[in-house]
């Protein structure tokens, strides 16, 4: 059986978490790093947005403005996957925390003991690393764009 690996996006998520202005000795940052297979299963790349294509067509990401749109979309994606826990230790089961995108998240376990990021039921494959300022969790899916409560996340 082939081992699933975290996506290259994980290093981007981790570097943003480490340099995050929210990092402190009283908070822990959890990086929710999707597997390659989760990124590959997306209908578009994380920096693409259906609304951009609808409004601008195939040239949505051409030129400086297109690059700026792509960077904004990627930042939104990354922010959905960085969770700041108001504690200097690990993220406890059931503890509510906010992603950098402002979404309330928590984790729970299913009947089989698998960790799930809630409310989206995204399974955690494993906790890949722990450091003083946080943890990297490898997840088997991606956290979806926002809802009416999170308008900055697009579609």
UniProtKB/TrEMBL annotation:
Keywords, ordered alphabetically: Signal
Entry-linked InterPro entries: Mug57-like (IPR040200)
Keyword Signal set for record: yes
Source organism, top-level taxon: Eukaryota
Entry-linked PANTHER family: FAS1 DOMAIN-CONTAINING PROTEIN YDR262W
Protein name: FAS1 domain-containing protein
UniProt organism field: Ophiocordyceps sinensis
